[in-house]
Inverse folding.
């Protein structure tokens, strides 16, 4: 009788050990499948908004300068000079064009902010600069009063130099006026918005893109991970 009980107890112990081993194997296999599934999920999951923004930022920096707007102007300037009781006068009509540029090399990573709650990407650009002017030399027209002073002295050359300098300053003055700077800002804003919005849409990320200039920028409410350089994002170095 005791021998039967002992044999029964041994069987129960053996069954318990076997059950423990089976459970351990099942747990190990389950953990392995979970790890494999999680790895595959991470491997094939789409990029995050921060990753896309970093890649777009790196692409913009490589352009160095962005020119999204240009305008043509005409300056009309007159210079006078008196010598020996005589006065000479020359008028110059100077057409020229001005490019409006943003120095993208000044863009910093903190200038690009992602607001997860609002699903909004905000980019703060450097200020727009009026570059030039590029004077159309073939279209310059000059008029003078035909005085004796222009014939017998070098006043004519001095008046030309003064007109050229004043004409370039006048072209820039017109270019930097409010309406043209606003148009340049709007054109630059649209170009940069497309540069960030198109990659986001291409990866299936629904987000609003907002482009601001220094005088429009707000204090950041959320910073995204700066542990990776844009160069690493482009090279896909994880």
């Amino acid at each position: 009788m005791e021998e039967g009980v002992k044999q029964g107890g041994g069987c129960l112990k053996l069954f318990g050990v076997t059950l423990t081993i089976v459970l351990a194997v099942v747990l190990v296999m389950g953990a392995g499948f979970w790890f494999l599934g999680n790895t595959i999920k991470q491997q094939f999951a789409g990029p995050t908004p921060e990753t896309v923004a970093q890649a777009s930022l790196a692409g913009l920096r490589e352009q160095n300068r962005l020119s999204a707007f240009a305008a043509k102007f005409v300056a009309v300037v007159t210079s006078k000079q008196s010598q020996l009781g005589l006065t000479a006068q020359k008028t110059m009509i100077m057409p020229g064009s001005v490019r409006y540029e943003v120095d993208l090399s000044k863009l910093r990573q903190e200038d690009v902010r992602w607001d997860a709650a609002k699903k909004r990407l905000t980019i703060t650009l450097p200020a727009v600069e009026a570059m030039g002017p590029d004077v159309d030399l073939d279209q310059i027209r000059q008029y003078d009063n035909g005085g004796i002073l222009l014939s017998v002295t070098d006043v004519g050359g001095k008046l030309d130099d003064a007109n050229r300098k004043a004409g370039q300053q006048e072209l820039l003055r017109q270019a930097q006026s409010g309406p043209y700077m606003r148009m340049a800002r709007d054109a630059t804003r649209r170009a940069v918005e497309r540069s960030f919005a198109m990659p986001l849409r291409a990866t299936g990320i629904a987000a609003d893109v907002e482009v601001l200039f220094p005088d429009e920028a707000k204090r950041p409410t959320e910073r995204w991970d700066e542990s990776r350089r844009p160069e690493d994002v482009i090279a896909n170095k994880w």
